[in-house]
């Protein structure tokens, strides 16, 4: 059974002027407390799947690790909601003091904290990837088809990473940042280079999501939803192609359109 879903929960429904009892399925929220070298580091509210990938990706995006080899041991105790991580080195004191916090499923942070700490880890993309409009539409269609739990519950964010062709991995979570961290963690675990990869995302491209993409190191983010003004500014500055409103047979390109190649003009 899918641990992301609580099945057949009794609810009351109003429809056609009547209240009646029925059942519904909804998503599971799971608190995962991450300890680093024996000290509590953060509690992430997440969906209870691919937790090892979430831990690896979260720690990398927070600047705790740069590569898989820096993580000596990771023990996931999902019965108690703990991930015990041991690093090969001591945790940087600045990170330890500034990062220990509760990370809610919406992954919100204060703007001051966000720019002083996270933006320093973001990378300017050096990606040389190029894709056709047809590839973008095809990737989004596949993301939608893979999002089975969302179709059942309507309560998850979906994300995937692709090279525009064969490589494709899909992850989902109640937290939009968590879904991206799981993809990042997967790539770290299996030593998959990310520079020429594309993030496909179901949610809004906010400044925080754009920064997360920059931390991962991809050159393009494709979403079925809208971007924000600050996200577009950051995408221009960080050399990331931001594509939004990918629906049916159309989309908008907000930054660095040179990576989208129109076959009819070649």
From TrEMBL:
Its main location: cytoplasm. SUPFAM superfamilies: Cytidine deaminase-like. Keywords: Cytoplasm, Molybdenum cofactor biosynthesis. GO terms for molecular function: sulfur carrier activity; sulfurtransferase activity. GO terms for cellular component: cytoplasm. Belongs to the FdhD family. This is Sulfur carrier protein FdhD. It comes from Staphylococcus felis. The lineage of its organism: Bacteria, Bacillati, Bacillota, Bacilli, Bacillales.
């Amino acid at each position: 059974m899918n641990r992301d879903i609580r099945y057949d929960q009794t609810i009351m429904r109003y429809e056609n002027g009547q209240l009646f009892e029925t059942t519904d399925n909804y998503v599971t929220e799971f608190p995962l407390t991450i300890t680093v070298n024996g000290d509590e580091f953060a509690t992430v509210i997440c969906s209870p799947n691919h937790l090892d990938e979430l831990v690896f990706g979260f720690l990398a995006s927070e600047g705790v690790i740069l590569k898989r080899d820096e993580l000596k041991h990771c023990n996931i105790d999902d019965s108690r909601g703990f991930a015990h991580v041991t690093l090969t080195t001591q945790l940087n004191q600045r990170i330890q003091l500034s990062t220990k916090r509760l990370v809610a499923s919406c992954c919100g942070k204060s703007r001051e904290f966000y720019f002083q700490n996270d933006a320093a880890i973001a990378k300017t993309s050096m990606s040389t990837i190029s894709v056709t409009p047809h590839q973008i539409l095809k990737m989004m269609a596949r993301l939608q088809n893979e999002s089975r739990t969302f179709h059942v519950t309507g309560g998850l964010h979906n994300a995937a990473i692709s090279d525009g062709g064969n490589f494709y991995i899909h992850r989902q979570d109640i937290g939009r940042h968590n879904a991206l961290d799981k993809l990042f963690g997967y790539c770290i675990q299996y030593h998959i280079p990310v520079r020429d990869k594309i993030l496909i995302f179901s949610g809004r491209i906010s400044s925080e999501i754009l920064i997360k993409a920059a931390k991962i190191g991809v050159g393009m983010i494709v979403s079925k939803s809208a971007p924000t003004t600050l996200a577009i500014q950051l995408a221009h500055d960080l050399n990331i192609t931001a594509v939004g409103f990918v629906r049916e047979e159309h989309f908008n390109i907000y930054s660095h359109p040179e990576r989208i190649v129109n076959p009819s003009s070649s």
